[in-house]
Specification:
Elements lengths: L19 H20 L5 H11 L5 H8 L7 H23 L1
Helix pairs in contact: 1-4, 2-3
Length: 99
């Protein structure tokens, strides 16, 4: 690590805002759950997603996501995202072996 940039992360102010980074992780987990349901042709996934979009913030966000099939009261969305991330890493490793 270059001595001049080793503490570069510390100057980024939004890292110190409550739950800022958490929002990215939560959004990623929700996006994986929604997209995987659609891509895997889960019954009603597209309809639920479109209904979710049409809600437009009219309900509590966790309730809107639950309506779309993403239940953050369980570990399932996080587990699904971690599985997806693991698959991506496996793909990268396989690609690197071919280079």
């Amino acid at each position: 690590m270059d001595d001049e940039v080793q503490y570069e992360w510390a100057r980024i102010p939004h890292f110190y805002r409550p739950f800022y980074v958490y929002k990215y992780a939560t959004s990623y987990c929700a996006a994986v759950a929604l997209s995987e349901a659609i891509l895997n042709n889960e019954e009603g996934a597209v309809k639920k997603y479109l209904e979710f979009l049409s809600m437009g913030g009219s309900a509590y966000p966790l309730d809107e996501l639950k309506h779309a099939g993403v239940d953050f009261s369980t570990p399932e969305p996080v587990s699904r995202a971690l599985t997806k991330f693991s698959q991506i890493l496996d793909d990268v490793e396989e690609t690197l072996k071919k280079l």
